[in-house]
Design brief:
Blueprint (H helix, E strand, L loop, with lengths): L1 H7 L7 H15 L1 H11 L5 H11 L7
Helix pairs in contact: 2-3, 3-4
Amino acid sequence: GIVRRLESLGESEIKSETVGKLVMEALKMLDDVAYVRFASVYKNFRDPKEFGEIIGSLSGEEGKS
């Protein structure tokens, strides 16, 4: 699905940022654990709060402390 979405953009070059965002979207719908693991590397988490924020976004608790 990701490849088809990239091909549909009609671009000869795709930024890695675009690929990363599409992968994150797909993983979020497919598997929460894989999504968090990928996001932690892709976004280069440095603080435990960042894990909490991404997990909160999965459970609909964004912005809550």
